[in-house]
Amino acid sequence: MSTSVTVARGKLYLVPAPLDFGCDVQAPLQHALPLGTLQAAAGITHWICENAKSARAYLKRIDAVVPLATTLQTQQIQELPREVHKKGDHAGQFDARPLLDAALQGHDIGLLSEAGMPAVADPGSSVARAAHDLGIEVVALTGPVSLLLALAASGLNGQNFAFVGYLPQDAEGRTQRIRELETLALRTGQTQLFIETPYRNAVLLHALTQTLQHHTRLAVARGLTLASASVRSDTVKGWRARALAVDERLPAVFAIGR
Predict the structure, then answer these.
(1) Tens digit of pLDDT for each residue in 37-58?
(2) From CA 33, how far away is CA 141, in angstroms rounded?
(3) Are 169 and 200 within 8 A, CB to CB?
(4) For residues 164-200, b (16+ Cβ closer than 10 Å) or e, as one string?
(5) Which part of the chain is the Tetrapyrrole methylase domain (predicted)?
(6) pTM of the shown model
(7) In 3D, which of 114, 111, 143, 141 has the Cα closest to residue 128?
(8) What is the DSSP letter of 66?
(9) Nearest-angstrom CA–CA distance, 163 and 72
(10) Cα–Cα distances in Å, from 36 out to 15, 62, 142?
């Protein structure tokens, strides 16, 4: 008589990362993430990430606070395909199920992005979706989400808001998109949140102050969770009267509304 053994499936943990990726100065890890999140992450030995090098650097920081369950060299790390980074994975076209084989064998898997919460303004939604399809429990750990931190500090409408990603890089397309978002924000009261690559922050801020109407409110949150963090929320008229020098090394979240 044969017997079959059922292997309990592992879980998929969405592990937030600090918001200081790419910054000259890093915040103490325990200031940005609760101990429970660090302890959970330290116990994981299988990972899905955007970039293996930066994932190992993050795990090394965790190890300095809470020892990892296994050595850094023995951690199993898989990268999401490059096209997922470029085009995103929220449209359902990328099949992430093969990345979750270890969970089907009973291992917990951690999902990482470069900064903040994976699958929020970053790749990872395809992995969470695949986990649900495979019957794997998905657990989001507590940590910083730059969009919500910026929204909370902006004074703009936190009951009705939308994150619209990146604006077009070409000047004409960017100006048109800014006007579209402003029209929507002023008509509905819905706050519009967007981001940019840090070295283009100054260009975007200039475009916003030159394109938006003088009474529209613009908020810019920079370097969130860092000692150098700042949040400014003012009418465009106020922005024009007192320009702000933008540090092109710090990540920023932009928001417009009324």
Answers:
(1) 999 999 999 999 999 999 999 9
(2) 10
(3) yes
(4) eeebeeeeeebbebbeebbebbbeeebbbbbbbebeb
(5) 55-235
(6) 0.90
(7) 111
(8) S
(9) 35
(10) 11, 12, 8
Amino acid (1-letter code) at residue 15: V
Domains, the chain, ranges and CATH?
12-140 (3.40.1010.10), 146-257 (3.30.950.10)
Q: Is 99 helix (H, G, I), strand (E, B) or coil?
A: helix
Q: Is 92 left (phi over 0), alpha (psi -120 to 50) or beta?
A: left
The pLDDT tens digits of the residues spanning 109-159 come to 999 999 999 999 888 999 999 999 999 999 999 999 999 999 999 999 999
CA angle, corner 178, sides to 175 and 183, nearest 5? 125
Cβ proximity of 241 and 210 under 8 Å? no
Given a cut of 80, is residue 257 above it in pLDDT? yes
Q: Which residues contact 54 (CB under 8 A, 6 or more apart)?
A: 21, 114
d(CA 105, CA 156): 46
CA gap 136, 19 in Å, rounded: 28
